[in-house]
Each structure stands twice: as structure tokens, then as C-alpha cells.
């Protein structure tokens, strides 16, 4: 007999540690179900309109020419049967998948989340002065719960990525130093090669001059011999 009184006087008796039991889900179509049915009806109507009598008659030219009334009656019955079968199958899917109940539940959750978000926004001024307090997790908005669960993992991933980036930057610096050293080595080799080419060109020029001077010396000796031969005569 004292337990109810104690629960009534307890300061946190109104804060339940778990969500209250959910009310039964109504099977009357809510906003999302209604919109889904409207979209399906529009799509089905466009499909039926695409099967026009002109397109249907083009597939059966002989009956269309001789018995157009009968063919048009068949076309109407075919479209009606198609629309009826598609609608019945859609209704069966709604029942089999419990679409109405699930979408109504989604409407309810969205509505509750919107109300809690508005209430939380209105109460942030007072909480800013007194502190955040102990808020039951199931009363938080979905975005806050999502961030609370995802933020630690993102922080760990961020740390790993930053470490990899720093290692890559260090490797890039080392590669840059190696490339600069290789460029300096290439420039040194090019300078040495140019010096060798200059030496080869100088040697070729000197050889050419020596060959020309040697020919002149031979001609001079020959002329001297001719002069001596004439003097002897």
C-alpha cells in the first residue's frame, strides 16, 4: 500500500527509463499511404492510356477493318481487366507487406520527432543557464542520436586518415629531394658531355689544319726538287 505513495512522491517518477508502450497502429490510410495510392493510381492511368484503341487496332488490322465495334469492345474489356488486376495486386501487396501500418507508424514517429524538436528548441534557453541535465536517450531527436553513435567512429577514422596523410607528405618530401638530386646529377653529366664534345670538335679542327699544312709542305718539297732538277740540267 505504501509503494504507490512512494512513487507519487518520487521526484523522477514521471521520467520513465524506457519509452512508453506504443499505441496500436491504425489501418486507416495516413498521409503517406494516401500519397502512395495517388501516385499508383496516376501511374496506372497513364499505363492504360498508353494502350489506346489506335495502337490496339494497329495490331489487328483485319478485325479493325471488318468488325471495328467488336474489336473496340474487346479493347475496353482488356483495359478494364488490366486495371482491375493491377489494382487488386497492388492492394494485396499493401496487405502482405503491411504498408499501411508501417507508413502510419512512420507518420507517427515523424510527428513525435517534430514535436520533441520544437519543444527542445523552445527549452534550450532555460537549459543553457541550468545545464543540459540528464536527458533520456529515447527522448532525443533522431539527428542527435545519429551523431552520438557516429561521431566516435568518424573521429577514429579522421585520426587514421590524418596519420596516413602525414606519412604521405613525408614520402613526398623525400621524393622531392631525390628528384632534385637527380636533376643536379643530370645537369653535371650534361656539362661534362658538352666539354667532351668541345674537345672532340677541337681535335677534329686541329686534325684538319694539320692535314692542310702537311699538304702544303709536300707541295713545297716537290717544287724544291723540281728546281734542283732544272739546275742540274
UniProtKB/TrEMBL annotation:
Residues 17-26 have a biased composition (Pro residues). Residues 1-10 have a biased composition (Polar residues). Keywords: Cell cycle, Cell division, Centromere, Chromosome, Kinetochore, Mitosis, Nucleus. Residues 1-31, 117-145 are annotated as: Disordered. Its main location: nucleus. InterPro entries: PMF1/Nnf1 (IPR007128). It is found in: Chromosome, Centromere, Kinetochore; Nucleus. Residues 122-131 have a biased composition (Gly residues). This is Nnf1-domain-containing protein. It comes from Aspergillus cavernicola.
